[in-house]
Amino acid sequence: GAGVSQSPSNKVTEKGKDVELRCDPISGHTALYWYRQSLGQGLEFLIYFQGNSAPDKSGLPSDRFSAERTGGSVSTLTIQRTQQEDSAVYLCASSLLAEETQYFGPGTRLLVL
Amino acid sequence: GQNIDQPTEMTATEGAIVQINCTYQTSGFNGLFWYQQHAGEAPTFLSYNVLDGLEEKGRFSSFLSRSKGYSYLLLKELQMKDSASYLCAVRDRFSGAGSYQLTFGKGTKLSVIP
Fold it and tell me: Which end of chain A is less congested by CB atoms within 10 angstroms, N or C?
């Protein structure tokens, strides 16, 4: 079946602009995660959604970052007033249940000029 | 918090065996994962260990010792296509607000040479 999909695959933006990144999880997966991978760094947890529960936002680096998940499926990560240090690959993952294996999407490569 | 260490780079010869080590420190261990990531691509799941011992899956095996905070990924009969980064990730039941987030090491870049 279809895996996790993300769009856009690449995004170049100017410092100060807002960006929206989209994630479509595997159908039926209840848990959805956002991670960030900066050059030379490990994947960094950002936010987690599980069903209708309140999301775990403990990994968001600043209040410029927010995310929502509509209808328990598609998720959007929004970065406001982008900074150059936001340049990274943003990866989305989903799992059937929260405690099960996470499967990753191809990521969105964000470059802030 | 967690601290996960793995070697930055390794090189091995096609057909050989390579072992990639991972050490971790965590307060509420709840599983260790290995992922493979080819350059420019998404991480793909390789293995999961939650109990001590060896899990074998074809050419890949993963070992866990919870008392030592140690895991390794063993790759046998190396092929050129195995050149990739290998990511060790730990799940901690006390991390975040009850979520099942993974904490990743920085990855080990494996180069397989002829």
Answer: N
Q: What pLDDT is stored for residue A1 in this prediction?
A: 57
B42 near A103, Cβ under 8 Å? no
* pLDDT > 80? residue A92: yes
- How far is C-alpha B44 from the geometric centre of its chain's CA atoms? 11
Chain A positions in Cβ-Cβ contact with residue B97 (cut-off 8 Å)? 54, 56-58
The b-or-e profile of A82-95 (16+ CB within 10 A means b, else e) is beeebbbbbbbbbb
Q: SS3 for A98?
A: coil
Residue of A nearest to B42 (CA): A106
Per-residue pLDDT reduced to its tens digit, A38-64: 987 889 999 999 887 888 888 999 999
| Alpha carbons B65 and B60: distance in angstroms, whole number | 17
Q: Give me A72's structure tokens.
A: 């328990």
| DSSP character at residue B77 | S
CA distance B88 to chain A (A): 10
Q: Enter the tokens of residue B32.
A: 């260790």
Instruction: Identify which has the larger pLDDT, B94 or B62.
Output: B62
